[in-house]
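[Automated response] Your request has been received and processed.

Submitted sequence:
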Amino acid sequence: MLEDRTTAASSPIAWPAAYPQGYAVVDVETTGLARDDRIISAAVYRLDARGEVEDHWYTMVNPERDPGPVWIHGLTSEMLEGAPLFTDIAEEFATRLEGRVLVAHNAVFDWQMIAREYARAQREAPVRQRLCTIALSKELGLPLPNHKLESLAAHFGVVQQRAHHALDDARVLAEAFRPSLVAAAARDVRLPLLECRPLTEWTDRPVPRQSGGYGSYRPTSWRPARKRPACPYPNPGRYEDGRPLKQGMRVAFSGDTSVERDLLEDRAVEAGLHVATSISRLTSLLVTNDPDSGTSKVVKARQFGTPVVDEAAFGQLLRDVAPADE
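Generated structure:
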């Protein structure tokens, strides 16, 4: 049972009617960060509408490949050899996610890994919305030195026992999420919920992309337009090399990305950035893995002097986006 670090019991609040009816606080450990990496352990804490713990669950998963950075997650090939495959735990995992908002720290990463595993298993994860605790801490204006889980935990006095162990990370996040949720409810803060769009097909074998390159995801021939909510922050101007991104900056993407484009854009939105569909003099940054290509966005970026970074550099910048000016 998690220790209640809020005053909700002694000072009842009017709970917003629009808030979700349940949450699944999730952490997954993986063989790496690329789109063809695999889940090697997963944990879920199920919470009720007000953030109270209902139960928790943990499993290791045999990735059928090298476990990756053992020095980070501590799971060796020997430990994983007898673990179930993802297809063996997919139904139980789904039961714990179904009908709930997926909550995670840097939720777009956990969601994309889960979505890919279900696509490999020719199934669909029963998740329709996710909530990133980084985005929620920004909405609440928590005075954190950075956006690491350990900083969020320290803010609420939560003791982390085994960092990068899925069960302990999920416990820590659940314990930090509950007072965050109560604080949001007390101030009637709109929760930063984002849509989860499951993948419908997947292969780990290289297949031709429509653009002629190769990758793991087999795209459909039709990509629906996505109407995103307006960015709530003013545009602070262009990105400057060596400085952090700032909330409100207009970011555009061009060309193939290793992370599915929609998920990469979602991650930018969660960080408080404005995703632009075109390049103008107001664009803060262009993200492309092929800056020498002749796409219209790259050509316009050259004309306007728009700063350009590749996907890897952008991923690093997303880890610590500066808050918008007051």
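Summary generated for your ticket: The two ends are 39 Å apart (CA to CA). The domain at 223-318 is CATH 3.40.50.10190 (Rossmann fold).
If you did not submit this request, please reply to this message.
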